[in-house]
Amino acid sequence: MQRRRLNSFLIYLILGAWCLIVLFPLYTMLANSLKRQRDIFRNPFTPPWPLEFDGYLTAWSDGRFDLYFRNSIFVTLVSLFLIVFLGSLAAYALANWRGRWSTFLYILFIAGLMIPIRIGTINLFQIVQALGLTDSVFGLLPVYTAMGLPIAVFVLTAFIRSIPRELMDAAYVDGASEWRIYASIILPLVRPALATVIIFNLIPIWNDLWFPLIFIRAEEQRTVILGVSLLFGQYQTNWTRILAALTLSALPILILYLLMSRQFIKGLTAGAVKG
Question: Which of 6, 15, 99, 164 lies 20 to 30 Å from 250, alpha-carbon distance?
Fold first, then answer.
């Protein structure tokens, strides 16, 4: 009994230390975004007082971050929808189609996890240019969809294969079509896995700087991360404004994660139990 308490104490001690390590940069970013620049240089770790909101007001109005946020939210939501929709369709087909070609296609999707998509940047730029989607947020949608499909197919195929076949056979007997089975049976049962896929793809898409920097030059098409990167000056940098913009850019991810954390954890634990 005493050994179990000691183990629990050590586990909570490690988790508490890890939480401090993770939360300290967030605290530093938030605290310094509410200070004047000279107070940041004086001591960046003290609590902000009095609170200064000039950085937020300047970043939102003068920096056109309202426009950048709309672009990022549009790109992220549409990309996640395409990843979940196409990935779930592909996973449903691969889970029910057992054969040599299905195994080959599944391995092909899995290979996408091991090969960074940035390797094909030049070819991707040529494709986007041929489609006439350069200098547009629409040019990012096919790239992000292709980037997120491998993990979506990998996670969802395993979940769909774990669903009892009798459920789908009973639906076939009742005259349900493939689309009805997919929408009414498969999607509700794999909801935790869908949340896992969304969380895994949300952060790379929202925080991506590589493809917007290469594909987009027009100011009205910039994403929020690209807009933040352009705030760094060559000779002088307004750190209050930058930290305020970074805090604003982190809020949507934190809010969405808090809303979907229960489904996300359920998806991870279900995958661990089912193997």
Answer: 15
Q: How far is CA 82 from CA 75, 77, 79, 148, 197, in A?
A: 11, 9, 5, 9, 12
Tens digit of each residue's pLDDT (9 = 90 or more) over 144-170:
999 999 999 988 888 888 888 888 888
pLDDT, tens digit, 9 for 90 and up, residues 34-59: 888 788 888 888 888 888 777 777 77
Residue 210, token pair as written in the block: 């590589």
Helices (H), the chain: 2-33, 37-42, 54-61, 65-96, 100-114, 121-130, 140-162, 165-173, 178-181, 187-189, 191-206, 210-215, 224-229, 239-274
Cβ contact 139:215 at 8 Å? yes
132 three-class SS = coil
Taking CA atoms, 205 is separated from 32, 119, 151, 213, 262, in Å, by 26, 17, 13, 13, 21
Q: Give the whole-angstrom CA distance, residue 71 versus residue 65.
A: 10
Q: Per the omega criterion (within 30 degrees of 0), is the bond before 50 cis?
A: yes
Dihedral, CA of residue 128, residue 208, residue 149 and residue 221, to nearest 10: -40
For residue 79, give the amino acid letter.
S
Cα separation, 53 vs 96, in Å, equals: 55
